[in-house]
Specification:
By secondary structure, the protein is mainly beta. It has 10 helices and 140 strands.
């Protein structure tokens, strides 16, 4: 081993290099931890041990090296500290948030902008740079540099004292000195300057004195020197500060700014960067503390993004989500209120309180009914709407949720007591109604009134009454006046067969909550209104209506008044029932006498063992013992499960259950008699009778309580009453006297004077006093007796006083009147609101709106958010208070919201501070890291990765480092422990493979790899050879595979066969990638084959052939033909059967004829000597013909698909059939007509001799027949049905009688066309028309309806485009380009250049100025037909003039609509010609890209429209137009000129151009404004100016202007906008007003006529595909007939006979 020099030298070199590097860096570079420092320390620790082993070496030679080593180590430690500081500064800078600072400086008490300069004094200049003030003395003023005095230098403006008696001042280089005056009081140095002064300071201040010369300056005299200092103000850390009045130190302006957002003073908020920081703004400082999450009330809380604490899981239903605690209304059911609780949804029904009896149903989406309407009998009524009452005599209506009814008004009747007839509403004089009873006319009845007996009779609605005389005998003390009997017979009431006396009140049997009373013989019943009982625990007795205070119901038990008991739920409470209220008090426990007292179940006081139950029973322990589950009640013991009567109350039935006695009122059985006596508990004692409010013993006789003429008897609880018999009387109208049972003959009576004068009242007449309508009087024989009207009991709790009786139409409550439905504050309870409803007042607490804050303060009535109530304490808004639950938290109340957070702690400069026990704020004196506490300087394993990482705590911050990994010695190591690379397995392509594992290489590499000790070795795969010609390699695969055939989306293996999916009787076979499909060719192998409904070939029963039986699935060759095969097949039902067919041979696609090999012996199909051609991607969609002419092959899905052609049935025998060379199907030279026994040649047709409606034809041996159908025929009167020879259908034969049409006679039988939809004929003097009705037409989005010539109904064609030539002339192409071309020859306007279907030519001529042309005529060429559209709307076809409308089927239809000639031609071509100069061509979009001519190529691009006939783009519009010149049509030859580039406005001059601009300005004015957005007006404006310049002045200019305006209006109409632009002086159109026509800019193109007026207008418009053109129309309501507008009624008689049009013959005029 080497000596110490050898060991120290590398270390010294290393340290030296580190020190040199640090010196050169200058401390400006942040170094990592210096490597090797640990090694140095380690070396020093080991040095003594090493040196001791070499004791012989002299120690002195190492001393300088050790000293140098110590210096280097000190430098290293210093560098380490500097590096730490720099790293801390970098971390601080990295955590800073860069914000553009406002570049301004503060100086002289104000802010200076960036770059400003100012002078605080004459010798100093300051400037603001980068927000910092830089002040320097002015260099060019030497006097500002200061002063020199006695070798001392003083700054400019400085004051100094060279001695105690002199004060000097340096100002601009000059020193001025003054002697200090001697003070009168004390002075600093007595005797030096001032010989006579006491020690002190100037100003007369003594030594040690303190004073305040200014509010914020304090001065002290010390040893003759005045020392003054300003206030000691704390350093502020805020954006903006100010000094309050009267204060010395500045304070921060309230409010904070944090993370770029301002916050008010006192605000609590969450940090936007870290939602787990709760921050508060207090005294302009932001303090943030981590949020402590409260324990979650739910088992699995969820942490949501942007939140700190996990919250209870929300709820999700039907795609909606709600937070925990959130309430909502269930969708679809507004009455269900649901709440989310910990992920579960709980719902309950909303309760609604209705303030009206019949509220309207709730509005959609709401729950509670409303009083703004009524819902009654399943129907909704609006307020004010009549409501059916069920009573025909009253009229009811809905009034805000209630129903108000009034009787129907009745006419006055001439009698005073009219009666009512059932079924009628109004009273009539056929009977009488008297005192509530109905009487028939001439009926006599008796009444008892005021104790008098009165006999009355009814006569035609009038009631006459007289008093019956009473006998004198019964009374001993007669009263004064006519009342003779002191015991009058009162009117009685009968209810449910029981009579009750007048004025009696009672409860009907079985209806305890109903009270009845008898008034004037009428029983009046109403519900009993229970007043609130004056006790707290009343009892609802059985059979009683209202609860009473006779006993107490407490916790479900009934206790008698005066009873003491123990509360079963709280055994330490002793309770007593007093007057229906239970009062409880705590039990005082007596002292116990034993050492260990015990408490039993349901027992309050502890007792000594063994004495508890005996003390309860008050007996010695040896005498009594009860089981724990027995009951003690009223000092009696009852066994568990026993039922018994209550010891003190026999009307209660009790049952003992598990130590508790449960008592309840005894149920009363129904009494077996009608009037039982009250028993002990129930009214069921039939040993007597209770009748009329009195009790009678059994067998007792007693007078009826209300009818003394009836005697009653009590029989076992039932009462039987019988009437007494009376003798007959001689007088016709006897009367019944009071107190008498039998009537007597009456005496005469006299009338009574009425109070207040007037007609005297008749005897027995009732009347009311004028001054008191509430009293009712009766005249009895001259004497008047009056009595107050009886009032029925009011059915409400707070009735108001009516005119006579209490009324329920309002409420009298606490002395105040309230209307029904009125709400008012409760006079007794401050926060209650009351409602008066139909005489009853109900009060409830005022409904408070839910507070908009979680912790509202208690208001006067409702909670308010002007403060907080938090955990039972009240706080003012803005108040801070300590959290009652967490001592380290501080809460703030703001507007009913309480926010609590940790008390603000000073921000720390460490990342993992530790909060010591008992402290609220953390410190940096230790570390808390993932739950592990560490002291300062302590090193510990990383809690997150203890085996691979070490952490160190340094001043509250934890730094962790991963342990270093040794290098791996293999190319593909895998991660091992601590993610260090190891060579135990391989990591390649992101996947780990174990050592020795074999796996596939990278995708597409076709390699197989092996892992060996971290190294991967791969070899390429060897693919096996394939013998098939069609091989395919799957995407991502390595080796090809044999591919079969792809057909109908499925792959089939080579050699397989299957049934064709669309044709079950066709089969397909796959051979060398070719699919061959053909119909199965059947072969019969038995004499009687049979065919099932789903069979393709006939079957032979039983799989037997030539004596041999075959099993299912076996196949064989039935004969010598190797192509025939039979198969035995199983059937779904029945035995297996035999089916035979010909084998199908595969198509040999691409096989030359020379390579075709015929089939060998016992082989069916030919083969090809070479490989068949493949269906490659380049051949997809192509077709080839294989050698077999019956097949057609198409390349699909890289497979040849060959389909066999189907052959028709032939009529000739098989021997006559022949197959032409190269064709598949056989033919016959003639047809065999079996029915007629003859033959027909090919192409011959004939009628069936037995049926003239069947026509047949022969086509190469195949007979085709068609049946003609005849329409139903109805002939007019006098006509005959005839069938002409050889025709199928009959027709009507007319008598010779002509018709009138358009002023001329039409012969009978003549027919003509009105239009393409209507054909008329003259039948027996009557015009009869047939009109075709078109079916509904629905075209696709890219289609439009169009007419075919001669067709009435439109069909859908591709949406058309149009080209127009107008003016002088201008051409607007199909693609929208506007051209100007003035050649005066003939030109191709539009032509089908690909198919040659049509060509449209125009011929121009000069008009107006030289060099300018207009369209003169239009020629339309349709094959061999030439149509010319000439001036004046004349039309020629092939040179001969024709009248319009003109039809040449199926090619052409020309008609005149208004002022426009419209030509319809196949296929979809339409040409519009105005007869002067404007032509428009419209073609369907199926011609896109096929057109050529002046209208362009119709390819969607306007830029290439100037293509000539050769397809080349031409440079100018003139060259383009001239290139399309054609020879002129027939007619006199004329000189034509080619078009040139002409600017007519330049030739016309400035004045003409200005006038043209002004007149064409109408295009850009308001009449066309609606069209500007869809058709830009600028090209048309330019064309208009061009035309007006070319036309020159005069009347021709007006026509040119109208042409241009009409051209723009036409394009607007095509775009769906119809401008109303013509005026009285602008392009006016004259219409024949005398014939009823008016002008319309866009009238209906198919107007109403006498012939189509029966077709609905919508259908007529839907099937009219002509363009809308301006012209003269009939006004609405009139139809057009023979060029006049007439009313539909004035149309001539036209019989419409059907909807199928005949072939339209020419019109009668042609």
């Amino acid at each position: 081993m080497a000596g110490p020099p050898a060991a120290l030298l590398p270390l010294v070199l290393q340290l030296t290099s580190v020190a040199v590097a640090s010196a050169t860096d200058g401390g400006g570079v942040i170094l990592p931890e210096p490597p090797g420092l640990a090694d140095i320390q380690d070396y020093q620790q080991q040095a003594p041990a090493r040196s001791s082993s070499h004791a012989g070496a002299p120690r002195e030679q190492w001393r300088p090296l050790e000293a140098r080593l110590e210096r280097l180590e000190a430098q290293m430690m210093e560098l380490r500290e500097q590096n730490k500081e720099l790293q801390a500064r970098v971390r601080q800078l990295e955590s800073c948030e860069c914000r553009p600072a406002s570049p301004q400086c503060w100086g002289l008490g104000r802010a200076w902008p960036e770059g400003a300069r100012w002078e605080p004094d004459t010798c100093t200049a300051c400037v603001c740079q980068d927000g910092t003030v830089h002040c320097d003395p002015k260099p060019d003023l030497p006097h500002c540099h200061g002063c020199s005095h006695n070798g001392q230098t003083y700054g400019n403006g400085e004051t100094f004292s060279p001695d105690a008696c002199t004060t000097c001042h340096c100002l601009e280089g000059t020193i001025k000195c003054t002697q200090k005056p001697c003070p009168r009081g004390p002075c600093p140095e007595p005797g030096t300057c001032c010989p006579h002064c006491e020690p002190g300071c100037p100003g007369g201040h003594r030594d040690g004195e303190t004073w305040q010369p200014e509010p914020c300056v304090i001065c002290t005299c010390q040893a003759g020197t005045v020392r003054c200092q300003g206030p000691s103000c704390a350093e502020l850390n805020c954006l903006e500060s100010y000094t309050p009045p009267g204060e010395c130190c500045p304070v921060c302006r309230p409010g904070c700014e944090y993370e770029g957002r301002p916050y008010e003073e006192g605000a609590n908020f969450l940090s936007s960067a870290d939602p787990c920081l709760q921050c508060s703004c207090l005294r302009s400082l932001v303090r943030c503390a981590p949020i402590k999450c409260p324990p979650s009330p739910c088992p699995e809380p969820v942490l949501r993004p942007g939140h700190c604490c996990p919250t209870c899981q929300g709820c999700t239903e039907a795609g909606s989500r709600w937070d925990h605690g959130q309430e909502w209304t269930a969708p679809g059911d507004p009455c269900r209120i649901c709440r989310c609780l910990e992920g579960h949804i709980q719902c309950h029904q909303r309760e609604c309180s209705s303030l009206c009896p019949y509220p309207a149903r709730p509005r959609p989406g709401t729950c509670c009914p409303l009083c703004d309407g009524c819902f009654l009998n399943g129907r909704e009524y609006r307020s004010g709407e009549p409501v059916g009452s069920g009573d025909p005599c009253s009229r009811c209506h809905c009034a805000n949720g209630s129903v108000q009814c009034e009787p129907l008004p009745c006419p006055p009747v001439p009698c005073r007591h009219p009666g009512r007839i059932p079924g009628q509403c109004c009273p009539v004089c056929d009977g009488c109604e008297y005192q509530g009873h109905q009487y028939q006319s001439e009926e006599t009845f008796r009444l008892q009134e005021r104790g008098r007996c009165i006999r009355c009779s009814c006569q035609a609605g009038e009631v006459s009454c007289e008093e019956q005389a009473c006998p004198v005998a019964p009374c001993t003390l007669p009263d004064s006046g006519p009342q003779l009997c002191p015991a009058p017979l009162a009117a009685a009431c009968v209810l449910d067969g029981e009579e009750f006396a007048e004025g009696v009140q009672w409860e009907p049997d079985g209806q305890p909550c109903t009270a009845c009373s008898c008034h004037d013989g009428v029983p009046m019943c109403g519900a009993v209104l229970c007043s609130p009982p004056p006790c707290q625990h009343p009892t609802q007795l059985p059979g009683a209506c209202c609860p009473s205070c006779e006993s107490c119901t407490y916790h479900g038990q009934v206790y008698a008044n005066g009873r003491n008991f123990t509360d079963a739920d709280s055994p330490c409470h002793a309770c007593r029932c007093e007057a229906g209220t239970v009062r409880c008090s705590l039990v005082d426990c007596p002292p116990t006498t034993c050492a260990r007292p015990q408490s039993g179940p349901d027992q309050c006081c502890p007792r000594c063992p063994g004495t508890f139950m005996h003390e309860l029973l008050d007996c010695p322990p040896s005498e009594a013992y009860t089981h724990a589950s027995d009951c003690i009640l009223e000092e009696q013991v009852f066994v568990d499960g026993e039922s018994f009567s209550h010891p003190r109350d026999p009307c209660q039935e009790c049952r003992c259950q598990e130590g508790h006695a449960h008592c309840q009122p005894r149920a009363c059985p129904r009494a077996p008699c009608a009037h039982p006596l009250p028993g002990t508990c129930c009214q069921n004692d039939c040993n007597g009778c209770a009748f009329g409010g009195k009790e009678y013993p059994n067998g007792a006789d007693f007078p009826h309580p209300s009818d003394p003429c009836r005697q009653c008897r009590c029989l076992s609880g039932s009462v039987q009453c019988l009437s007494r018999r009376c003798p007959p009387l001689p007088c016709p109208e006897p009367v019944l006297l009071p107190g008498e049972c039998c009537p007597q003959c009456p005496a005469t009576s006299s009338g009574c004077p009425r109070p207040g004068g007037g007609v005297p009242a008749r005897h027995l007449e009732h009347f009311s006093q004028p001054d008191d309508p509430c009293r009712r009087c009766l005249c009895l024989d001259g004497s008047v007796s009056c009595q107050r009207l009886p009032c029925p009991p009011a059915p409400c709790s707070h009735p108001r006083q009516g005119p006579c009786c209490p009324s329920c139409d309002g409420c009298l409550y606490q002395g105040k009147d309230f209307a029904s439905g009125e709400r008012f504050p409760s006079p007794t309870a401050s926060c209650h609101v009351c409602l008066c409803w139909e005489g009853s007042v109900s009060c409830e607490p005022r409904a408070c709106a839910p507070a908009q804050c979680p912790f509202p303060a208690r208001g006067d009535c409702c909670p308010a958010c002007d403060g907080c109530e938090y955990l039972g304490e009240s706080y003012l808004s803005g108040q801070e208070f300590p959290d009652p639950r967490e001592p380290c938290n501080l809460c703030t109340c703001l507007g009913g919201f309480v926010t609590c957070g940790r008390q603000p702690c000073e921000p720390l400069g460490c990342s993992h501070p530790l909060t010591p026990a008992g402290h609220c704020c953390p410190t940096c004196q230790g570390c808390l890291y993932h739950g592990v506490t560490a002291a300062h300087g302590e090193t510990l394993p990383d809690p997150l990765d203890p085996s691979c990482s070490l952490c160190t705590c340094q001043e509250g911050s934890v730094r962790c480092q991963k342990k270093p990994c040794p290098p791996a010695l293999c190319p593909h190591p895998s991660p091992g422990p601590c993610f260090c690379p190891v060579c135990h397995s391989c990591l390649t392509q992101g996947q780990e493979h174990q050592d020795g594992a074999e796996f596939e290489g990278p995708p597409g590499s076709c390699e197989w790899c092996r892992c060996q000790a971290g190294q991967v070795s791969c070899v390429r795969l060897q693919c096996p050879p394939l013998s098939c010609p069609l091989q395919v390699t799957e995407q991502g695969g390595c080796c090809p595979r044999c591919r079969g055939c792809l057909a109908h989306g499925e792959e089939h293996p080579e050699g397989s066969s299957w049934v064709h999916p669309q044709s079950p009787c066709s089969s397909c076979v796959c051979h060398e990638g070719v699919v061959t499909c053909a119909r199965v060719q059947c072969v019969s192998s038995c004499a009687q084959p049979h065919r099932g409904p789903s069979d393709c070939c006939p079957r032979c029963s039983d799989c037997e052939h030539e004596g041999r039986k075959y099993e299912p699935g076996e196949s064989f060759q039935p004969g010598a033909d190797p192509c025939e095969v039979c198969i035995c097949e199983l059937q779904p039902e029945g035995p297996p059967s035999l089916q035979c067919h010909r084998r199908q041979c595969p198509s040999l696609v691409g096989c030359p004829a020379s390579q075709l090999l015929p089939p060998g012996p016992q082989h069916c199909c030919p083969t090809c000597a070479q490989a068949l051609s493949n269906c490659t991607e380049g051949l997809l969609g192509s077709e080839v013909a294989p050698p077999d002419p019956c097949y057609t092959c198409q390349c699909q899905d890289l497979t040849w698909l060959c389909i066999h052609q189907a052959c028709p049935e032939l009529s000739c025998p098989p021997s006559e059939r022949h197959t032409p060379p190269g064709s598949c199907c056989p033919e016959c030279r003639e047809c065999v007509v079996e029915a007629e026994g003859r033959r027909a040649a090919h192409g011959e047709s004939w009628r069936d001799p037995s049926n003239a409606c069947i026509t047949c034809a022969c086509h190469r041996g195949r007979v085709e027949c068609h049946l003609e159908e005849c329409p139903a025929l109805s002939c007019p009167q006098g006509w005959a049905k005839v069938r002409e020879a050889g025709s199928c259908c009959e027709r009507c034969q007319a008598p010779a009688q002509s018709c009138a049409h358009e002023g001329r006679a039409v012969a009978s039988g003549e027919r003509w066309a009105v239009d393409v939809c209507t054909t008329c004929s003259c039948v027996a003097g009557t015009v009869r028309c047939q009109s075709q009705r078109c079916p509904p037409l629905s075209c696709g989005p890219d289609e439009a309806p169009a007419l075919s010539p001669g067709s009435c109904c439109p069909r859908c064609l591709p949406r058309p485009a149009s080209c127009m030539a107008f003016g002088d002339p201008h051409y607007r192409t199909f693609d929208g380009r506007l051209l100007h071309f003035q050649g005066s020859c003939s030109y191709v306007l539009a032509k089908d250049c690909r198919g040659g279907d049509f060509s449209v030519h125009v011929t121009n001529d000069n008009r107006g100025r030289r060099g300018v042309a207009w369209t003169q005529e239009v020629a339309v060429l349709l094959g061999d037909v030439a149509v010319r559209l000439l001036q004046g709307k004349e039309v020629t076809v092939d040179g001969r003039p024709v009248a319009l409308p003109f039809l040449q089927e199926p090619l052409l239809y020309v008609e005149l609509r208004r002022r426009t000639v419209i030509l319809h031609a196949q296929p979809g071509l339409q040409v519009l010609w105005d007869g002067q100069s404007q032509v428009e061509v419209s073609v369907p979009s199926s011609y896109r890209g096929q057109m050529c001519g002046l209208c362009g190529n119709f390819n969607g691009f306007a830029q290439d429209d100037l293509q000539g006939p050769e397809g080349l783009l031409l440079p100018t519009e003139a060259a383009f137009g001239n290139s399309w010149q054609v020879p002129e049509g027939p007619g006199p030859s004329r000189i034509c000129s080619k078009g040139r580039e002409v600017d007519p406005c330049r030739a016309a001059g400035y004045r003409a151009r200005r006038e043209a601009n002004a007149r064409c300005g109408v295009l850009k004015s308001s009449p066309f404004s609606r069209c500007h957005s869809v058709v830009p007006p600028e090209p048309f404006f330019a064309a208009c100016v061009y035309d007006l310049c070319a036309c020159g002045p005069g009347s021709l200019a007006d026509a040119c202007l109208c042409d241009a305006l009409e051209a723009y209006a036409s394009h607007c109409r095509q775009a769906g906008v119809t401008p109303a632009w013509r005026g009285p002086t602008l392009c006016v159109v004259g219409c024949p007003l005398d014939r009823g026509f008016v002008f319309d800019e866009c009238g209906p193109p198919c107007p109403r006529t006498c012939f189509n007026q029966h077709i609905p207008l919508g259908e007529l418009a839907a099937h009219c595909v002509r363009p809308c053109v301006p012209g003269c129309q009939c006004p609405a309501g009139l139809v057009e007939h023979e060029a006049h507008c007439i009313s539909p009624e004035a149309c001539p008689p036209v019989q419409l006979t059907g909807d199928q049009p005949p072939r339209p013959p020419p019109s009668p005029g042609q």
